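User: quick one, sequence for these tokens?
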């Protein structure tokens, strides 16, 4: 009688090892670390977002605004980021404070974009000599942060119209009033609130004691997420900016330039591809933004000849560019215009 055939055992060991490795990888993919992988995001042509009544889109040259992509990092993405100069790892709280939900963060980001668009229209038309009326009517409370000074005192849909005796016309006024204050300081807040029974506005005063900021404890925080209350606006030119679902204030400078470009006979870009980033303010200054390292790489990938960056981000942008693109330091809209005239 022939003995039973013996099969080698190594294939079974190999198969078992591969299954174990596959299970381990699957588990690791589901484990996120307390970091965002920050990488270059899409680069957008501003002319696809801005429509100016009576304006024209330049046939040559583009004005791009830059974005970043945020993704919660797993073990593999964390390791990959160590090898990719385009990607940075940032602690989650650097972008989303511990007491702020993803939904609250999204609403705040969209509110920042809303103000940015309005400010861009105001600045662009004012620079071109148009008569513009923009009257703020207060800062609208979107939500409050748990365990903050405002929690349980202010309510969603409250309209802040005054702080410490100073008029609040826009959300930015709240930030300006809070800037010189310290943790533990009192602040008197006057709000308009709708009475639930009469549906009429009532004016209430509250005193809040500022607590430590969740991002930066030495700094004070009132603990509110704000938008502009609907302002009184009289723009002499109809300008529409469809920001889709993109949030944040950093497209403000480039929206401003695109509006001006559509209302100017000669293209501002002189046929060149220009990328840029930076928030815009009513006094025509350009504010620093986040993710400049990744945005510079986005500008390079888009084939831009130059990238406009806020003065506060300039040094970091130059390091990221490493001579691969011209980096232009911009403090005001005039700085951007003066550079474009040199093209």
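Assistant:
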């Amino acid at each position: 009688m022939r003995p039973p055939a013996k099969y080698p055992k190594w294939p079974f060991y190999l198969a078992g090892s591969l299954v174990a490795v596959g299970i381990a990888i699957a588990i690791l993919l589901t484990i996120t670390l307390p970091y965002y992988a920050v990488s270059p995001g899409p680069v957008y042509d501003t002319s696809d977002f801005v429509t100016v009544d009576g304006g024209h889109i330049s046939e040559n040259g583009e004005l791009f605004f830059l974005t970043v992509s945020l993704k919660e990092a797993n073990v593999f993405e964390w390791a990959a980021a160590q090898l990719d100069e385009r990607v940075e790892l940032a602690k989650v709280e650097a972008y989303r404070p511990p007491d702020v939900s993803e939904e609250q963060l999204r609403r705040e980001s969209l509110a920042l974009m809303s103000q940015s668009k309005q400010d861009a229209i105001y600045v662009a038309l004012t620079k071109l000599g148009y008569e513009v009326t923009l009257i703020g009517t207060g800062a609208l409370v979107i939500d409050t942060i748990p365990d903050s000074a405002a929690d349980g005192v202010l309510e969603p849909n409250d309209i802040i119209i005054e702080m410490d005796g100073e008029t609040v016309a826009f959300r930015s006024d709240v930030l300006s009033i809070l800037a010189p204050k310290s943790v533990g300081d009192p602040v008197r807040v006057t709000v308009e609130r709708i009475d639930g029974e009469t549906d009429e506005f009532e004016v209430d005063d509250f005193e809040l004691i500022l607590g430590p900021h969740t991002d930066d404890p030495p700094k004070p925080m009132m603990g509110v997420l704000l938008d502009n209350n609907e302002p009184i606006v009289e723009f002499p030119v109809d300008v529409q900016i469809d920001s889709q679902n993109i949030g944040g204030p950093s497209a403000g400078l480039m929206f401003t330039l695109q509006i001006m470009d559509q209302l100017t006979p000669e293209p501002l870009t002189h046929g060149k591809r220009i990328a840029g980033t930076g928030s815009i303010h009513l006094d025509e200054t350009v504010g620093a933004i986040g993710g400049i390292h990744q945005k510079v790489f986005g500008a390079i990938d888009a084939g831009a000849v130059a990238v406009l960056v806020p003065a506060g981000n300039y040094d970091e942008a130059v390091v990221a560019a490493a001579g691969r693109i011209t980096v232009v330091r911009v403090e005001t809209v005039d700085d951007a215009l003066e550079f474009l005239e040199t093209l």
